């Protein structure tokens, strides 16, 4: 393996917030910014960094409150997706990135869309992996969340399912999967996530971001307009057994984007845990094609 293909694990100070990130590849290649979701971190990208370094400078940060990045308490940091995007903008400045492809997964999707819509010219292409941007993907499993976002009372909060616990963390990986896929998931993933989430105050952070996800949902019309107006090239990778985002979501992207390639896998919400090789090959081909490599 080339030395530059090996993952480098580093941290950088961004306005007093320590951002941990994994990186592979060289700065002369197009940047691919990998944004993780809840409850994970850049750890979920560990198997795709080396193959993607063939065609890109791969950068996978841990968002504030996740993984090995700082997790300031509520009151010391504004936990909204807009502010996470602010931090990511300054992070990109610190490491010398101007243009980039962006990988959108779960909570990473609202962060990435804030970046894309602020300066569309910076975004070379979208890689969407089980990241929601349309009502199509939010089935009846989101009814309780919608009620809470519309009226955030204690009564409506009490109706929400319990997910900010160890069982809920494991469920992010395993819920909805047939047994043939459940046995492919390594348990250290959710154990690491739960260990990081168990930091003092971090469960409050995660609930605050869940509350702000309602603001992301309210922007779906704006996201569709961004797609229609700017037409970023898009690669969509989807685990069809996702218990959280319905498969119908993929057609929302197809409605508005002219240049879109879609792959649906026999997988769940955390596609890369079971289909890292297939996903890396598709992403590398997409990046090479769009960038003319």
TrEMBL record:
MF terms (GO), sorted A to Z: epoxide hydrolase activity
Pfam families reported in the protein's UniProt record: Abhydrolase_1 (PF00561)
InterPro entries the record matches: AB_hydrolase_1 (IPR000073), AB_hydrolase_fold (IPR029058), Epox_hydrolase-like (IPR000639), Haloalkane_dehalogenase (IPR051340)
Domain AB hydrolase-1: 31-275
Highest taxon of the lineage: Bacteria
Sorted UniProt keywords: Hydrolase
Coiled-coil annotated spans: none
Name of the protein this chain belongs to: Alpha/beta fold hydrolase
Lineage: Bacteria, Bacillati, Actinomycetota, Actinomycetes, Streptosporangiales
């Amino acid at each position: 393996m080339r030395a530059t293909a090996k993952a480098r694990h580093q941290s950088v100070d961004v306005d007093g917030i320590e951002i941990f990130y994994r990186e592979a590849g060289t700065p002369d290649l197009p940047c691919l910014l990998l944004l993780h979701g809840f409850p994970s971190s850049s750890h979920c990208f560990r198997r795709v960094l080396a193959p993607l370094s063939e065609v890109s400078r791969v950068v996978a940060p841990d968002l504030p409150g996740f993984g090995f990045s700082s997790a300031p308490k509520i009151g010391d940091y504004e936990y909204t997706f807009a502010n996470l995007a602010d931090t990511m903008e300054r992070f990109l400045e610190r490491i010398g990135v101007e243009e980039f492809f962006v990988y959108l997964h779960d909570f990473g999707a609202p962060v990435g869309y804030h970046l894309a819509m602020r300066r569309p010219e910076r975004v070379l292409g979208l890689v969407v992996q089980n990241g929601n941007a349309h009502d199509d993907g939010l089935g009846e499993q989101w009814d309780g969340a919608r009620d809470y976002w519309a009226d955030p009372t204690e009564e409506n909060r009490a109706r929400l399912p319990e997910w900010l616990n160890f069982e809920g963390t494991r469920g992010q990986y395993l819920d909805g999967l047939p047994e043939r896929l459940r046995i492919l998931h390594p348990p250290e993933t959710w154990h690491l996530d739960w260990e990081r989430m168990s930091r003092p105050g971090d469960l409050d952070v995660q609930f605050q971001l869940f509350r702000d996800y309602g603001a992301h949902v309210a922007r779906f019309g704006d996201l569709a307009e961004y797609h229609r107006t700017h037409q970023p090239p898009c690669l969509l990778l989807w685990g069809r057994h996702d218990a959280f985002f319905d498969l119908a979501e993929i057609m929302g992207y197809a409605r508005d984007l002219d240049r879109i390639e879609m792959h649906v896998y026999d997988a769940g919400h955390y596609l890369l845990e079971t289909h890292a090789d297939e996903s890396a090959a598709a992403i590398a081909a997409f990046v090479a094609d769009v960038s003319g490599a």
